[in-house]
Amino acid sequence: MIISSLSSLTCLEQDFFVLQEDPFLQSFPLLHLPSFLQASPLAHLAPSLQDSPFLQADFPSQEDFLLQDLLLLHFDFFEHDFSPLSQCDFISPCLPSKDAEHSDFPLLHFPSLLHGATCPIKNTTNKVNSVVITDVVIVLIIFFIRLVIYIESKTKIKKLIYNFHFCLNKQTTFMAITYADLKGPKGLPIIGNLHKIEITNMHNQLEGWAKEFGSVYKLVLGPSKLAVITDVEIIQEILKERPHLFRRMEKMDEVMREEGVKGVFNAEGDEWKAHRRIVNKGLDVNHQQAFFPDVLLTLERLFNKWNGAANNAENLDIQQDLLRFTVDVTSALAFGSASNTIENDGDVIQDHLAKIFPIIFSRINAPIPLWRYYKTKKDKEFDIALVEVNKFIDGLILEGKKRLAALPELKANPSNFLESLLVAAENESILTDEDVKGNLLTVLMAGEDTTAHTLAWAIFLLAQNPDVQKELQKEAGNVIADNNWLTNYKEHTKLTYTEAVALETMRMKPVAPLLLFEPLKDVEIKGYAFKKGSRLLVESRYAAMQDENFSDAKIFNPKRWLKVEQGKCPMNHDTKAYIPFGAGARFFPGKNLAMLEMKLVLSMLAKNFSIELITPKEEVKEVMAFTMMPSSYQVKLVKR
After folding, report:
1. Which pLDDT tens digit goes with each residue over 286-342?
2. Any idea where the domains of the chain sit in the sequence?
3. Assigned architecture for domain 237-639
4. Alpha-carbon gap, residue 22 to 163, rounded angstroms
5. How far is it, in rounded angstroms, from Cα 93 to Cα 87?
6. Residue 40 to residues 114, 120, 129: CA-CA distances in angstroms?
7. Each residue of 199-232: pLDDT tens digit?
8. In sequence order, which residues have a C-beta less than 8 Å from that of residue 166 and are 6 or more positions away?
9. Is the dihedral of CA 559, 563, 564, 569 positive or negative?
10. Phi, psi of 187, deg, nearest 5
């Protein structure tokens, strides 16, 4: 209740000066009351407050928002004697006078009100002083009540009340901002903003609206109401509080389970914990090192293909090669399967995988599940692709079971991710055959899409930045020496600039810029209230592209990631605004594998070739299809 909250006010004179230094409060305008400051016991504060940049606002002036008007409103609500206050030149003399006890309100110490001001009350007896102090509290209470009432007709005043949180508990907001308070793009009845959304360009639209409506705004897509979030602190809090306070949006889980994807990506609660433990074990660094020779075999095949194209001066659709490379590496490392899609031009699993993610993304964002009632051509192609991928997964599971039967010792020490899953399914009741299949499909799709598209973006950016390309070539020559690619696993840690190129690529072109969550209970973060089950759409790239978080944020500069001293970087940036692998307990488990693949490919490329972009850069678009990938482009590789 507002009165009980305000009765515990302990604002001292110095709080007014804190106002000027608080950057959070400076983002909101405060009420402009020059007459109140200059003709009152607060007069000595007026010069300091008058110069404050946020004390200038388009709120009502003294002509239509007088303090006297505040005091005259609902004075019969209180049983107090206000006559002593009438002697102060900033209080109207026409105050009601009633006898009452003042024990309902605690006494506050206001040195600026009782000393050095024009109010003669300070010279009265102690009893009168106590009455005055209590009445000053009542004046402030009524002031706030008047503001609350004013909200009904003037929405702007909500921000004013929120700014007075410094007069309450410093950790608690006075009024949380709800979904109804948020601004957002204007929509139409029933469909909201649905007609404005371009699915493949949705991330750019969201970033554009963030510039217009702020770091938290609302978006209505038919029956779905979403709070779009680009604020760094709120995003970090959401990620940190998973899985006990937030989960992935339920609709995403529903769509993915419908297509047979039931794994660590969309599992929640205890189910997620069981999946995560097994996935981490199957993708750990020890397994990477053990399968490094298989990864190098796949890298050699990629080099041979690119070297042949360079010898023949051919233009390359390099994205397809990268997708096949990542499929082969994932199959070898995670499944123990000797896949070779790079050298096979026929029907390969990668072609089917390419049709799955875009359809899943469109279904997650569809207001009505039309595919359940009518199948379009793309839906039918999706169904066929899913059948083929499931056949591939079933084949892997069968091979894995045969290995475990032939080599029982593997059950104590599984050699790959697949074997870890199969052993767990035997020993743990929480993991079913369906879970094994879902996790394999999750790792296959995630390992193929995310790493391949990041590499495609890196090559696109390198082609436009010859200085960065030269620096990359220099490091590759020093580390790889006389070889065509890195051959010693432990030496990948020396590719620091190569890693910086990958990190900078993920800052500017993150393949997963959109994340969907919902709270498991009502929660308040940074003054924003989110209800249980509400839909939160996180757009993660916007913050990483702001100069306040990364110096010269629009410039591709890998050097910003090189540490010149322990824990320090040469350029000023806020790593909280950078979350390509997520954060908190649900950090992406395949990070180490992804970074290893990127460093191997980029260093091999830089050691042997220079990159020339054939497709005009303005024709290469960002395409959102669950992951953000570049539209098709061609490059020419020139041998060094």
Report:
1. 767 777 888 899 999 999 999 999 999 999 999 989 998 998 888 887 777 777 888
2. 2-167, 237-639
3. Orthogonal Bundle (1.10)
4. 11
5. 7
6. 11, 12, 17
7. 899 999 999 999 999 999 999 998 889 999 999 9
8. 11, 15, 18, 19, 22, 25
9. positive
10. -125, -175
